[in-house]
Amino acid sequence: MTRLTVLGSCGAWPEPGRACTGFLLSHNGFNFVIDLGYGTASRLLTHTAARDVDAVVITHEHPDHMADLSALGRAWHYTVQAPPTPTDPGEGARHGQTASRPLLLPLFCTTGTLRRLEATEPHPHPTTIFDVRDLSSGPQLHPAQEDSATQGPSTAPERSTAPEHGATREPGAAQGLSAARQRGAALELGATPEHGAAQGLGSGWDVGPFQLTAVLLPHHVPNHGVRLSAPGLSVVYSGDCGPSRLLVELARGADLLICEATLQGEPPADEPRQLMTAAEAGRAAAEAKVGTLLLTHFWPGTDRAVSVAEARAEFPGDVLAADEGLTLAL
Ligand SMILES: [Zn+2]
Fold this sequence. Notes:
This protein is 22% helix and 22% strand. By secondary structure, the protein is an alpha/beta fold. It has one domain (2-329): Ribonuclease Z/Hydroxyacylglutathione hydrolase-like (Metallo-beta-lactamase, Chain A). Strands 6-5-4-3-2-1-14 form a seven-stranded mixed β-sheet. Strand 11, helix 8 and strand 12 (292-296) form a beta-alpha-beta unit. Helix 7 (245-251) crosses helix 8 and helix 8 runs parallel beside helix 9 (304-312). The longest helix is centred in the N-terminal third of the chain and has 12 residues, at 69-80. The termini are close together. The structure holds zinc ion (ZN). The site of zinc ion has 6 residues, from helix 2.
């Protein structure tokens, strides 16, 4: 059984009664969390306990995509990692945890995300809660490929030069304190991103039943669009980005494209572009020939029906608007 649950659909800040960006992709019992912006942690925990989260990917370091990662980390630390006692072996002990080897939650993110997480709460340090994998250590197209592939104005975001906190840029290497989480044989987390290729974009990581491919897309900070593939299933999420040919290639033939549609109407004239209009999202979906387009990251106050109409004018397939609690069977 496969389903995608929308945890939050707002960009920037959450509207009353809503939350910022977040999704839960559940496939054959594996729960993959995709972004955790403002207000999403409570919604996530209404759908699944922290101990049943199997992996997390954060596309970029902006708080509307990662602020509630700290909340999930706390839930993980104080429930799953709670020290076992003689009278209560605890969740961790039931999964083989020992005092010297706590269970870590696999987390794919940028070094910038890790820095913000550490700034929020340095103790316990996030690398003692999460098994951190640097998204930028995965396959990346050469800048020349980006340039030649990009249609329309676009630019590669600046790379962060601030110190890293353990997350290595060596391909696929896990953070130093990490150990592959052990949950029976259910989780197989590949140590190196070498298995298979997604749409000619290079190799990815094996994460449970999924192959994860990440591609750098144009935004104010390093943002990785992600593709999660399993036999008979492919879900692509843009994160936040301006129009990019790489997004089209990442999404090529996907069953579902979750695409940011922050803007409406005519695209802004300012360059470089860091966000997309709903029409541009529709155009990307059409070029990639995806099955369904799910618009998200709406600017607060946006009339979402207008966004859907603008995307439908460009894309003949199904177009939906993300909505808190919406669940799609895939
Ligand atoms: Zn955002």
